[in-house]
Predict the structure.
Amino acid sequence: MTTFARNKKNGLSGRTADSAKAITWRITSNLVIGIVVTIITVSGAIFWMARSQNEQAAEATRTMVLGGLGGLEEYIQQFANDYAWWEAGYDAYVASDREWVDENYGSGIIDTQISDLIFIISTTTRDIDYDWAIEDIPTPIRDVFTKDVVEDIFALTADMPHAHDAARSAYILDGDEIILMAVNRITPVSRVPDVDPDSLPLLVQGIYLNEERLTEMGQQFLIDDVRLYVGEPTLDILSNNFPLIQDMDDHTIGALVWTSPTPGYAVLRSAALPIGIALALFSIIALATAFRARKIATELASEKEKIDTVVSSIGEGVLVVDAEGKIFLCNQFGGLLLGLTQEEILGKSLSEVFQIPPEGRGERPALAAILDVVSARKTVKLPEVTFPRIDGNTIVLSVVGTPVELTGIFIGGVVVFHDVTEQKIIENAKQQFISIAAHQLRTPLSGIKWAISLLVDESMGAMKDEQKVLLSRSYESVNRLVELVNDLLNIDRIESGRMEFSFEPTNLVDLLHTIIADVTAPAERKDIRIEFKPDAGLPELELDHGSIRIVFQNLLENAVHYTPEKGQVSIRAIGEGHAVRISIKDTGIGIPHSQQKSIFGRFFRATNAVLHQPDGSGLGLYIVKQIVERHKGKIWFESDEGKGTTFHVVLPTDRAHSELV
């Protein structure tokens, strides 16, 4: 081979090699750029999706935890209202009746495990008078609630209204634990004449935010590890926007924390460094990233599905609104009840979904009160309201709306509702059946009663003594049936609004004298002394004579029936401003404490009353309460089992002053 030939071959080989290197480099460069762009694009998209889903899941979880915390506050406030708002409690407190106060406010409440601690603060000495706590309380009450803390409580209640639902809640730090407490006054002003409302003692109940309570709260929302952090919040707590807990001085004393429900964002962030280091293995990393992204997306979808499942599985309609009143969460069951799809509900306001017209545009339905959850930021309870669905059907809903606040800032509300149409239909059918049955029974029973009375009076001829005794017993049985039928008819007329009341000036003292005369004979048979002491110069009252007679006839007959022989029944009539209070006190069998809340219910009779006198319908006191309330009055009682009962009825002098009762 000549030199020229060798040079030509070498030149071609060099150019081919250079060209191959250039193509390889170009392909490699394009591949690298393409893979890098793909990795950056895909990773960025996955990163953004993961972060977006993470934020949504975290916000939904945070809203549910806030709702649970609000539920705990309502729980302790409810019992503070129930136990503090009682006149007898104030009377026992003033009388230093430690045994009564301990049983009803102290150990009685602690034993029911409603609270972990309870104490009473005197507004005169501004010190703790009584205190009770569970056995394993971390710190004695007086060591936690020092003079400074008591002053903070007075500051908290400085503008608290004197109302039965006015309890306020707050948090206080106890070492490594936090106490949720509620404060209310022991008695309403209207029942303690000549007493400065601000001098009424305060009752404080408290529960510890312990692990057990927080675990129960978290499990409601499928969150396994809701826990309490005590102290100044760390940067991690603040960055994760966990709910903060503040004391009465607005100092942050802790926070509620939990594990993030979507770990995908952290996984992607931790994978950024390996991706940058392994640029040489772009294809493998891209594939691994794709699989990783798929796994993360699955986890995110799974967490979102859990939250959706929690809301969807609730057997009631649920709507969650933001601070502007726009609905951002709705479960499927709620849509079915309203006759709308979730897409038609989300983003709408409550007034749009519940078809409530703006003010000034026609009559507003009772359901319009639910708007106060956002406008007035207060809890609304509507036991029965009608709702006309778009499909033309009208249903009856029971609705409860609760505002949600975070560190004193309103962030939205939760509305829960369910269909009570069927229950309403059943209740109406039951009432209609009772009404028809009572009307059908009344006429034949009256005839039987009349016929037996003729035989007993021997108007149809003389009878043997045995026959007369038998007919007398039959007459008493028929008379009890007639009284039961009359009670059922009275209930039907009252509840249906068909019972007519004719209010006219009435001398209550004369009326009571006639009723006392009616019960004198049975009282004398039991050697029971009846004492009547009315105040002089009592004004006439605007009353319906017939129905108000039923009230006092029932109360006096009960007093005589349930008082043993040689007992006493005392009646007092006292003027109280624009009202008159009638008190009927007996020395009878009393009412068990555990059954006192049910005494005004339909068909209810206390167990000791049934043993004392088996006959009775349990309708009398229910009718009495309905009639008193139709007179714009009030009725309540005080009773100790085995010692006796005192019923109090307060009636306004006229309907213009009914709001003063």
Q: What stands out?
A: Residues 3-84 form the longest helix (82 residues). The domain at 503-660 is CATH 3.30.565.10 (Heat Shock Protein 90). Residues 1-24 have pLDDT under 50 and may be disordered.
